[in-house]
Structure formats: C-alpha cells, structure tokens
Design goal:
Helix 2 packs antiparallel against helix 3, helix 3 runs parallel beside helix 6 and helix 5 packs antiparallel against helix 6. The protein has one domain. The protein is mainly alpha-helical and about 200 residues long. The protein is elongated and about 75 Å long.
C-alpha cells in the first residue's frame, strides 16, 4: 500500500524534494551565519580588551571599548544556531546514533524499529514546537523584555527556537515517509544495508 501511495505521488516528489532540501540547507546556512556572528562578536570584544591592555602598558589612557551585553548577544546567537541547525544535522547524519542492536536485525524488524523511533521523535519534536511557540506567543502578548544593557522584545531572540523546531518536525516527518517507502533513512547514511519493502 505504501509503495502504491508513493508511486501516486511520484509526479510531485521532485519539486517537493527540492523544496525540502533547500529548506534544510537554508536553515543550516542561517545557523552557520549565527555561529559566525558569535565569532565576530567575541573576537571584537577580545581585540578591544587587548587594545586597552596595550594602551595601559604604554602608559596611555584606555579607550574603554566594549560591546554592550555581548554575553547576551552571543547567547541569543547560540540558541538560534543550535535550533536552526537541528534539521540540517539530522539530514546530514550528524546526530549521535547508537545502532549496535538495530544493525543486527533483519530488514522487516529493523524497518519497524526505525518507524517507531521516528514516530516517537515526531511526537517529541511536535511537543517542542508547540511549547516553544506558546512561549514566544506569551512573550509577545505580555510584551516581555530582555534584561541587561541590551533591552529588546523577548520574542525576537526566542523565535528561531520555534522555526528550528518546526523545521526539525518537518524533517522527521520526511524521514518517516522515506522509511515507509522502503528506503533507508537519510540520517542513517553511515549504516550498512537498505530498508526495502520487498520481502
């Protein structure tokens, strides 16, 4: 039945596959940009400290250059990078995967366990998306502000959490239908063997 279902959708598979792959890659690229942002902010702060220390050593007055709330900024960037990279890392097979037991199983039981695992992950990702969305909505509704020198609306730095969780949910659903079609999940790139519906 699953084979028939996927043959019916074959005409739509190409465009949908391209869209999803672009979504995952775009999310990964944005996550990488946030990581680069962390490097830039921290580097600027370190360089300003070195410059001040050098001026003091020469008997001159320090400039006192600093990035206000740079710790908070890098924290926001880290959260955004972590969540936005989830789906891309899953598709790249970068998440830790213990497959000692499942690698010893035959095709049919292995496929069933993979489907169970992905289904459970979908439930968890769905809950994560729901609760982070509620958190962002509450922050927007109550006009919560961040604490520190840099005061902004709290929903802004929290929004990437919702986006990253939602894209991860989409990626897991994508993997579920991939396994259901008889193919090996993309996240198991390093595993041996293929899942096949042909028994």
């Amino acid at each position: 039945m699953a084979v028939f279902y996927f043959k019916t959708l074959k005409g739509y598979e190409g465009s949908m596959r391209k869209f999803l792959d672009r979504l995952y890659k775009t999310s990964g690229v944005i996550a990488a940009l946030f990581l680069m942002g962390i490097c830039v902010v921290v580097s600027l702060q370190v360089l300003s400290t070195i410059l001040d220390n050098a001026l003091k050593a020469m008997g001159k007055e320090a400039l006192g250059l600093t990035i206000p709330s740079y710790g908070e900024i890098t924290g926001f960037f880290l959260v955004a990078a972590s969540f936005l990279a989830l789906a891309y890392t899953l598709r790249a097979g970068g998440h830790v995967r213990v497959n000692l037991f499942i690698s010893m199983l035959g095709t049919r039981p292995r496929r069933r366990i993979e489907l169970f695992n992905v289904t459970f992950a979908i439930i968890l990702a769905g809950m994560l998306t729901w609760f982070t969305a509620r958190m962002v909505y509450d922050a927007w509704r109550f006009n919560d502000l961040t604490s520190g020198a840099l005061v902004i609306a709290e929903w802004i730095p929290k929004t990437p959490m919702v986006i990253g969780s939602a894209i991860l949910l989409i990626a897991l659903i994508d993997e579920f239908f991939t396994i259901l079609s008889g193919k090996a999940p993309v996240y198991a790139k390093g595993d041996d063997g293929e899942l096949n519906l042909s028994e």
